[in-house]
Design a protein that fits this description.
Amino acid/polyamine transporter I; single chain; mainly alpha
Amino acid sequence: MIRRRVDLAAAIAIVVANMIGAGLFTSLGYQLIETPAGFPVLLIWLLGGLLAFLGAVCYAEIATRLPESGGEYHFLSEIYHPALGFMAGFTSATVGFAAPIAAAALAFAGYLGGLWPDLPEKTVATAVIAALSALHALHFRAGLAFQKLATALKAGVIVLFVIAGLRVAAPRPVSFNPLDFTAAEIWNPGLAVNLVWVSFAYSGWNASSYLAGEIADPARNLSRSLLYGTGIVIALYLALNAVFMRVAPVESLRGIKEVGLVAAQQIFGAGGGHLMGGAISLLLVSSISSMILAGPRVIQALSATVPLLRELSVTDPAGNPVRAIAFQAALAILFLQTLRFDTLLYYTAFTLSLFTVLTVAGLIVLRRRLGAPEGYRAWGYPWSPLAFVLGTLGVGGFFMVRHPLESLAGFATALLGLLLYRASDQSK
């Protein structure tokens, strides 16, 4: 029997918390390497937000029509073929959640280092993953309550940060007027690569679809959670990045991972900035928690169909996928111990885009096969899925040229999933 224990507020919190994480508090420093500060950077965040919202619009219809947990694993299996669904599920189970958990944990440790510089970064990152995984494994409802509270605090702190930044008396000379920039400065060669950074920051807009089988009243709440959650995050992202550039010198942000800490020191002074950096590190806990909550549902659904992995699908009496949670934690810790932070971000963003494109394109297949649904319908169909697919493919193609190693690693991960599917299919 399906336990539909996740209400609308919790589903929105899962989307918001998945999205607002390491990408928001780290991406800007890398974007400024190739893009002028001000309007060109905000345009990148706006374009990334538009792509994310178009994806959410399409996922909302797909998830409402196919309301079972597993995300792309379930969707692509139903729309195309179980082999493609397995590849997507394998990628989500490995790259989709474990790698972003590792990146967010490293960012958490980096910000916490602003308060206590002598803390060993990887040890701290490992500890936070282990502690939050234990919380979600031991008690589902306690973990869900923690998620709601942590996400509410996260949004509140970001709003306060934005208000404080807008009240700075002597802002930096940065312009958000498009007329102050040339076309070459706005549409520069680094835009596509920077969109990859931004797409990583926006990843998670589909988070509630991974728990579709546990969401109460999915016909109404699935689409609302995806759209409301994504809309909230777009507004917060634009406001916060504008504040970062408004209060801090570009030279102090360029190439820096802890951009929030630099901006906080400009607003609140050295002492207050370190405290704010500590607060930002706590906000990242919400992101790690939400991914630990959503990711194991993919692993559980995937492993239930594979004899070699069936032990990972075992749940406790309350239906909590405890073994999948432990497996994901171990994989995330392996990633943070072996990969650099920027490599994690590039690898994750590109690899995830492969299957979101296929899923959104699957909306057209569903419409042709089943006709228009009676309930929620994707806004702007068929232009919304076409715009998402073409936009994401364009960014991905440019990224492949600029970063071939990370691109090959993404394709290799998907291919490994196919090989595992073939091996498991032959063992049945």
